[in-house]
Design goal:
Number of strands: 17
Structural class: alpha/beta
Number of helices: 14
Distance between the termini: 38 Å
Helix content: 25-40%
Strand content: 15-25%
Largest sheet: 7 strands, mixed
CATH class of the largest domain: Alpha Beta
CATH architecture of the largest domain: 3-Layer(aba) Sandwich
Shape: globular
């Protein structure tokens, strides 16, 4: 492997267009004028794929990183035959994120969250003496846990107790990774609240979620894979969403390809979907509201308990801020779709039968939404369509490996006392 030179880039605030250096894990505009995302502006406008670099780092031109970590896989894009024939589509491409060695997919956690984890953990970071905090409904934590364990990066994970079944791994993790949970009946937002309490302590620093350019640009590699494989920007892009960060990332990658100039001048229509009955983004978008509509937190938790795709249940997504999901949908004339548990289960079975591998419950929601969109004539049969399978091959991986489950060191109540949390976390990391 050739010696890696750090990617050259700047950061730009979308609230005031200020351009500045990424000096210390910058997550916000230095002027803090309005709630807005910060975007990476790369020196390399035309991406070159470097196959001398391992895994997803072959796309390093558009990743805000200064080092290479071991063990990454990259999204793979291929032209569908089975599912395309079933739906009568002539140009359906599948971008697969997960475990499918026969097709060259080697994400051992079975999720595209590995894209963000390997990008975030390779980003320039001055805080080597502190512990990164990540909140997740499951998949993100599994990905970050693997990356941090393999590369000895201290990490605190915050995951709802009801989602602990997702914390499986091929090997036991390094003790530098520790897990805490919010009690049964809690959801992703409760885990985020717990992580925010931890981030107030000097011992920790927040990973940053959607505000972290490395997270978004890592997720955006699904579009980079698709466009560089197909040779053009697609007409439609289907993906299931929880926070919508992946859809924002897809839009941003599309904008970079417009600047690249070699892949066409279109903006692909974002076709994002949620798992019924938890559809706050769909409700807001259909009401043409830049802000999420009011809802009762307890009612939301009950809806979360119903859905199969728990990873799609963020009660506070980056929807309304500048550069967020509302802007992404507006700029691409996008749509927010939805699918029931039953529709997603049928879609997952169809994908298995026609394409030959299992998909996660979240990815099944996207497949179901594609099926429904075809039935309703929302997409042309000859359109170039990308279906982002955000997770797959997990059942295949589990059948081929002995699993180890990470258990929480502490389970906190849904509405914990902040001082109690801080005291217990400090003791946890003294051990």
């Amino acid at each position: 492997m050739k010696k890696f030179k750090p990617t050259v880039y700047k950061l730009q605030s979308l609230c005031c267009d200020t351009i500045f250096d990424d000096t210390d894990w910058e997550l916000n505009c230095p002027h803090n004028e309005k709630p807005a995302l910060v975007r990476a502006i790369y020196d390399k406008k035309q991406i070159e794929i470097n196959n001398n670099l391992p895994g997803l780092y072959k796309f390093a031109d558009w990743l805000p990183i200064n080092r290479i970590l071991e063990g990454s896989g990259a999204p793979i894009t291929y032209k569908s035959k089975g599912l395309a024939k079933e739906l009568g589509l002539t140009n359906l491409f599948i971008t697969f994120n997960g475990y499918w060695p026969e097709k060259g997919a080697h994400m051992q956690t079975g999720t595209f969250k590995e894209c963000e984890a390997y990008s975030v953990c390779a980003r320039k970071n001055q805080r080597h003496d502190k512990v990164m905090v990540v909140a997740s409904a499951g998949n993100t934590s599994r990905a970050f846990a693997k990356v941090c364990s393999d590369n000895k990066i201290p990490l605190l994970l915050c995951v709802p107790e009801d989602n602990l079944s997702s914390m499986w791994f091929e090997t036991e993790l390094d003790p530098c990774v520790k897990l805490v949970s919010t009690a049964s009946g809690s959801d992703y937002f409760d885990a985020i609240h717990l992580s925010n309490i931890a981030a107030e302590m000097d011992l920790f620093y927040p990973e940053g979620g959607a505000k972290n350019v490395a997270r978004r640009d890592g997720m955006g590699l699904t579009v980079v894979s698709a466009v560089t494989t197909i040779g053009r920007i697609p007409d439609y892009y289907f993906q299931a969403i929880g926070s919508g960060t992946g859809a924002i990332a897809a839009w941003e990658a599309n904008l970079r390809f417009l600047e690249d100039g070699r892949f066409g001048n279109r903006k692909m229509k974002l076709m994002v979907s949620q798992n019924e009955p938890f559809v706050p983004i769909k409700d807001a978008w259909e009401a043409q509201s830049r802000n999420l509509l009011p809802f009762d937190d307890n009612d939301a938790r009950k809806q979360v308990e119903i859905v199969n795709a728990k990873v799609l249940t963020n009660r506070r997504p980056p929807y309304s801020l500048i550069g967020g999901l509302y802007d992404a949908l507006s700029d691409t004339n996008g749509e927010v779709l939805s699918a029931s548990n039953e529709e997603a289960e049928k879609a997952a079975q169809l994908f298995l039968e026609t394409e030959g591998n299992d998909v996660t419950s979240a990815a099944a929601v996207a497949v179901a939404s594609l099926i429904d969109s075809v039935k309703k004539g929302k997409v042309e049969k000859n359109a170039t369509i990308v279906l982002n399978i955000t997770g797959g091959g997990t059942e295949k991986f589990k059948s081929e490996h002995q699993l180890h489950y990470l258990k929480p060191s502490i389970i906190f109540p849904i509405d914990p006392d902040p001082e109690d949390v801080k005291t217990k976390l400090a003791k946890l990391f003294e051990e």
